[in-house]
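FORM 12-B: Structure-to-Sequence Request
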């Protein structure tokens, strides 16, 4: 029967242990460190809830972070991560333990100091990452229920980006940059066409989704095909919208520092036509 051997108890919910297959690991689970002693063996099958931080650098970062964070908060965050894992069909990047713990602990500290940070991308985050937003909403509600701390609606969007970062194995900086890029693309559309897009409309939601996946395709280098002569037809029928679509893809190319295929311009033109029912509007400076 395989077992883990306690190396060091960090607190009631986290221990450093020696795993028979994985070597030294950080094992996280509710009450797993309570009354444990170094050298004590714990049968692996008896540990119902645990995570492994196998990366040495991740382990060290987590060890340094833990003494700075309230133990009850660590327990709640671990419960949140377990919930997230139960709702998805893929493996979370183990860095979420560090990223989410650090972010939420800092958010609580800001709240205690009456420092409010507005989230300008909240609506777009909810539309672009609906699953991550729902999971983040659960996290906010659980923190409120267990700790009596209300982090507010804005924080849902920030946590959702951390969850998306873990799901896609992207650095949180890149995830935030992509979200900002989408907002800037929308602002360019509104500026060039001198219109205000209806945020609650289905076509706006479709536009955001299209921009999200277009950015994903560019990031991964995925090529998208288009029907023959589609670009020529769109250039002729909707010259201003096609030109705007070219500007938008140029912005994507510059910010992502990767080439954007021609087909993206054509499909973006079609989405622009959806959100601008009048069709080919005259651009206003």
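FORM 12-B RESPONSE
SEQUENCE OUT:
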């Amino acid at each position: 029967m395989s077992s883990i051997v306690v190396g060091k108890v960090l607190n009631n919910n986290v221990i450093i242990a020696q795993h028979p297959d994985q070597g030294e690991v950080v094992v996280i689970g509710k009450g797993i460190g309570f009354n444990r002693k170094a050298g004590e063996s714990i049968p692996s099958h008896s540990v119902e809830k645990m995570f492994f931080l196998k990366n040495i650098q991740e382990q060290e970062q987590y060890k340094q972070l833990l003494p700075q964070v309230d133990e009850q908060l660590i327990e709640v965050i671990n419960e949140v991560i377990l919930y997230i894992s139960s709702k998805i069909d893929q493996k979370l990047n183990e860095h979420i333990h560090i990223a989410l713990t650090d972010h939420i602990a800092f958010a609580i500290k800001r709240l205690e100091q009456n420092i409010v940070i507005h989230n300008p991308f909240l609506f777009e985050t909810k539309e672009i990452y609906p699953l991550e937003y729902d999971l983040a909403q659960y996290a906010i509600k659980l923190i409120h229920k267990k700790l009596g701390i209300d982090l507010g609606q804005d924080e849902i969007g920030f946590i959702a980006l951390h969850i998306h970062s873990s799901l896609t194995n992207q650095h949180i900086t890149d995830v935030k940059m992509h979200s900002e890029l989408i907002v800037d693309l929308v602002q360019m559309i509104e500026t060039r066409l001198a219109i205000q897009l209806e945020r609650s409309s289905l076509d706006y939601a479709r536009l955001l989704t299209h921009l999200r996946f277009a950015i994903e395709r560019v990031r991964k280098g995925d090529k998208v095909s288009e029907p023959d002569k589609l670009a020529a037809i769109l250039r002729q029928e909707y010259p201003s919208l096609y030109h705007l679509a070219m500007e938008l893809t140029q912005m994507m190319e510059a910010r992502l520092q990767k080439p954007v295929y021609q087909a993206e311009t054509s499909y973006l033109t079609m989405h622009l036509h959806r959100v601008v029912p009048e069709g080919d509007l005259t651009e206003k400076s």
